[in-house]
Amino acid sequence: MNKPSFEEGLLQYVEELKDESEMTEKQKSILRASIKLFAEKGFHASSTAEIAKEAGVAEGTIFRHYKSKKDILLAVVAPVLVKFAAPFILKDIREIFKEQAEKPFKEVTTELFRNRLNLVLQNEKTIRILLQEAFFHDEIREALIATVFKDAKEMVYKLIEAKMDAGELRRLPSQAVFRAVLHSMIGLVMFRQVLDPDEFAEYSDEEQIAYTVDILMNGIGSRE
Amino acid sequence: MNKPSFEEGLLQYVEELKDESEMTEKQKSILRASIKLFAEKGFHASSTAEIAKEAGVAEGTIFRHYKSKKDILLAVVAPVLVKFAAPFILKDIREIFKEQAEKPFKEVTTELFRNRLNLVLQNEKTIRILLQEAFFHDEIREALIATVFKDAKEMVYKLIEAKMDAGELRRLPSQAVFRAVLHSMIGLVMFRQVLDPDEFAEYSDEEQIAYTVDILMNGIGSRE
DNA sequence: CAATAAAATGAGTGATTACTCACTATTATA
DNA sequence: TATAATAGTGAGTAATCACTCATTTTATTG
Lengths: 224, 224
Prior knowledge:
The structure is a homodimer of 224-residue chains.
Chain A: H1 5-15, H2 25-41, H3 48-55, H4 59-65, H5 69-99, H6 105-122, H7 124-134, H8 138-165, H9 174-190, H10 197-202, H11 205-218
The structure holds a DNA duplex (30 and 30 nucleotides).
């Protein structure tokens, strides 16, 4: 059915994405306040009155810059998708996968994980909002899948298969391998706060990445 | 600070948990309607008017049984925690880990994954709500961590360390191993709909579990 | 500096919100 | 069958919602 809700819905925001430099102070303030509130209490629980107050702005000013409350959400979320998708898929991934394709899969994966972890750490709040709202807004969910997964998946599949042919990876269904890589990455990146705070401190991010990749490559079982 | 928000907050709902049998038809209907709506559009986006309509009940009836809208949420979420936590940790896990502790780690894990996958499949909507709201409600998040993770973690840690001593698992930090198991499980269970629908069909749940466990144990790298 | 445009304002809008309450209908108990 | 308790109702309530618009403030330009 009405397929391109991404194209029609979010993509325009991505294209119309303003530089921060061409926003007024007030507009930037509205975005900042929205990110804060959406991340703290969610989109629906944050009222435009609150946003205005937090931003130090009249409520009407919000609607001068964004024609609806949902527009604010999309304006908040779009840049993250761009950072997640465009640089990742079109630059980072292409670079990582094409330029580094000769390197061992382990190194490629380490670089990938490091890249993603940094991105998430730098955009914690907006990513929280993004994931949060992806549950309910079709546009966002589809955009997320379209940008983050769809293109990336093909590349990863190709790399996986190439590395299988080269004997570097075991012969397993590509899908199973892809999912394993994906789950390791998401787990590494998303479930940091599940454990006790003192357990975090025990290992640095680099160590966490190293262990994650090591286990992904070699498993947890011994090889007696 | 005011620590036991779980005890004070959710636990009472768990204890006061009514049998379905001692609910009226209307009350059950309210719960069913709430689950449906909360899962579809989220807690905040679902109005009590909608719930009443969906449930075929006067709006006042809702507030006869639940003193606030949030109470409905807790009533929806509590049973899942009980099913997830108590039986899981206290029964399933104890059984799996104590009775089956002699079995290879691989088999224990397979059993665990199978158990969790079924639970999620059977409670898809409520688990969606649970995770969703855990983002924002401290009580729910803390309850989730307290019930699902905290106790389970210790048991898993002990098993992991025992299996390391027995030479069945590699010598790695327990934390890294625990996280790997956790990520595999969550990934297996939560990210089924990320892939194309036709890719699901390709492998059965049992096969997915088998590959997940295999990769967890042996990794994706070859052992030339 | 005057004229024009853009940005910002906040009181006001009708719709909707969670929730109350006086009341009726049903069921359980004595 | 009378009494009491529980279940159910829906109109009503104040508060809040996203959003509008006539007006004022600030910035830009000729």
